[in-house]
Amino acid sequence: MPIPATAPPSRRQLVHSLLALGAGLTLPQSSFAAPDSADTVWPRDSRVPGGVARLSLGPAPQRPQVSADGIPSLVLGDMIEWTALIGIPLSATVGQHEALIHTESGRKTLAYQVIDKKYTEQRLKVSPKTVDLSAEDQARYERERAHQQSIIELFTQPLPKASNLPMQAPVNGRRSSSFGLRRVFNGQPRNPHSGMDIAAPTGTAVKAPLPGKVVDVGDYFFNGGTVWLDHGGGLLSMYCHLSSMQCKVGDVLGTGDAFCKVGATGRVTGPHLHWGVMLNRSMVDPALFLVR
Ligand SMILES: [Zn+2]
C-alpha cells in the first residue's frame, strides 16, 4: 500500500503554528507582525559603499530592533526569519561594521564587512554659478540643506511591504550606471553622484516605484524641482530636476501613480530624472531595488 506523501508545511502554516505556540507563551497575538511575502530577496545584497547589507537575523517572536551607527534600520520578515536591510553610505570606510540587534532575549552585535568599490570619475561642464556659489546662493543652499535634513531623518510607520521592494522604474528611459561616480564640475571635485540618472524628455510622467507618501515638494538650488516620497521605516526616494510637480505634501501614492514630470531644473547638463533611494539616511544605489 503506497504511503501517502506528506507535503512539507508551508511557510504560512509554520508561522501559524509558531503563532499558536507564542500565544501559549502569553505574548499577545497583536504583538506579532503580519507575515511579509515569503522569501523576498530584495534589495540585492551589496556590501560596498552605496550598497545595502541584507543581514539575516533568524527567528524571533517579535520584530527585532536594529541600528547601525546609531541610526535605526529597516527590519522586514516574519517570526521565522527577520532580515535587516542596512543602507551603506557612499562615505563608509572599508572593513568591519556592526549592527546592534535588540530582541526580547537581549542585545547582541552582528558584524558585516564593507568591501571596496572603485567608482570612476565623471567630469562635467555646468553653469559656473552652480559650482562657485555666490554668498547669496551659498546661504540659500545651506538653508535648503538644513530643511532636507529633517526629511532625511524620517522613520515612519507603516513599514514598507517586502513584496513592494522590487521597485518599478519611475520613468522609462535609458538608465545610466552613474551612481557613485566621483564628480568633478568644471574641474572642481564635488560630492559623489548619489542617485540614478534616467534620460527622458522634459514632460515625461514620473511614476511612483512603490507605494509612498509625499513628504516634500520644493525647488532647490542644485536639485531643482524636487519631490521626496516616504515609504516607511527609513526608506525614502527622491526625484530631482523636475519641470512640474502634480502633488502636495501628504498625498498618498500607489505604485505606478504619476506625480511629477521630468525636466532640466537645478544643476544639470540636460533633461533627465535624478532618482535617489535613501535607506537609514544613506543614499544607496537604486539599481539594487530594480528588477532587471
Ligand atoms: Zn543625477
Largest sheet: 8 strands, antiparallel
Task: Using the alpha-carbon principal axes, give the shape.
Answer: globular
The span between the termini is 49 Å
As a percent range, the share of strand residues is: 35-45%
Number of strands: 21
Please provide a written account of the structure.
The N terminus is likely disordered. The longest helix has 18 residues. It contains two helices and 21 strands. The strands form five sheets. Strands 9, 12, 14, 15, 16, 18, 20 and 21 form an eight-stranded antiparallel sheet that branches. Strands 3-2-6-7 form a four-stranded antiparallel sheet, with no helix packed on it. Strands 1-5-4 form a three-stranded antiparallel sheet, with no helix packed on it. The chain is mainly beta and 292 residues long. The radius of gyration is 21 Å and the shape is globular. It has three domains: 35 residues, no CATH class; 76 residues, Peptidoglycan hydrolase domains (Immunoglobulin-like); 168 residues, Glucose Permease (Domain IIA). Bound molecules: zinc ion.
